[in-house]
Design goal:
By secondary structure, the protein is mainly α. The protein contains 4 helices and no strands. The protein has helices at about 1-5, 15-20, 45-55, 60-70.
């Protein structure tokens, strides 16, 4: 996305949120799915625990759904 915005490229592959946040066109190649891998030795670190808690919050789910709905209608 940065290369396109800087006129160093005519096209590229990016996730939809990045394309939209840079006012670029977007053609879906495939739905986006994310997996997070965390070494078990780091699982109890405060930052990791905060991340896990954030992912479990209803408000996070609501915001992610709203992002998905707003980008699919754009």
């Amino acid at each position: 996305a940065a290369a396109i915005v800087q006129h160093r490229a005519d096209w590229g592959v990016a996730i939809e949120a990045i394309a939209r946040s840079n006012d670029l066109g977007f053609i879906t190649v495939q739905d986006e799915h994310y997996d997070f891998a965390i070494p078990t030795t780091r699982l109890m670190r405060p930052a990791v625990q905060a991340f896990i808690a954030l992912l479990q919050e209803e408000e996070t789910h609501r915001q992610l759904l709203n992002m998905r709905l707003s980008t699919s209608s754009a």
